Amino acid sequence: MKRSLIVQDYGSSSEDSEDGNAQTKRSNIGAPAKKQKVLPSLSPELTSPMPSSDPAAHQGRIRAHPHVEGQWATHIYLPVHFPMDALIRDAREVVPELHSLIEGGDNGTDSTSNNTTPTASSTTSVNTKLELELHISLSRPVFLRAHQREEMRRAVKRLASTTGAYEASFACFTTFRNDEKTRAFLSIELGAGHAECHALSLGLTDTLGYLRQQGYYAQPRFHTSIAWALLHPPSESPTSPFASVSELPADLVPGLEKRYGTELRRIGRFDVDHISVKIGKDVHSWSLGGGT
Predict the structure, then answer these.
(1) Dihedral sign (CA 59, 60, 62, 66)
(2) What is the pLDDT of residues 239-286, one digit of tens each?
(3) Using an 8 Å Cβ cutoff, are 49 and 72 in contact?
(4) What residue ranges do the domains of the chain occupy?
(5) Where do the record's region annotations for Disordered lie (predicted)?
(6) What does 41-67 look like in DSSP terms, one character per residue?
(7) For the CA atoms of 142, 147, 153, 158, what is the dihedral angle to 10 degrees?
């Protein structure tokens, strides 16, 4: 008897539930729709813009390290302010395929076309009216996760606080190729200040190792690159629409050395008093010696 009552009660409860649901549905018909709540956007600290890997957006440059969501490209360097515009204009007369690396300087656009006639003042001196920022690298390209960025900033700040400012100088013109052999660079190699730059670079080794990143070269040649050109792609690669060279001409460096070498070494001394780290698009700089 109890068993049948239980079954009956269960069935009765189910029917009541169905009736209730039907009434609720009927009462909702014609009611105004509830506004969907809009979620707040994520903080920029938690997101990174998706970089374009299309060579057309980068003057033919090919990304050596494919973009990985959540990774931040990082570069540690010494900022240097030194006038170079006239020198680059002369170099582009020899190698029209060169692109300037100086911020705000000649970028290979029509504003500095190859058939422009330089003035006497701009061709006989390294100096121009603008002193633009150059970089002396202390690290290879580094790729950090979001949670590693603060550790890198702290490491560079510590290094700055324990290293005093020093004087350096440029010694000579030279050329380099990147590790992937896709670009050639016109550069100026450091003379005085090499030992101090090496000490700064070595000071990053432990942090880079802790973050599972590769340290700088075992026998570094500290330099600033002022221009670059694409190298011809391998024969089996598709034809590139971008201007390229097999290599920088053998007479480029001797020609620049003859024209600018003496003056470069005469006026090429500069103070190294800051160290910078660029993480994504954010740049953080500290004075050497712990100043502001």
Answers:
(1) positive
(2) 667 888 889 999 999 999 999 999 888 877 899 999 999 999 999 999
(3) no
(4) 70-287
(5) 1-61, 101-126
(6) PPPGGG--------GGGGTT---SS--
(7) -110
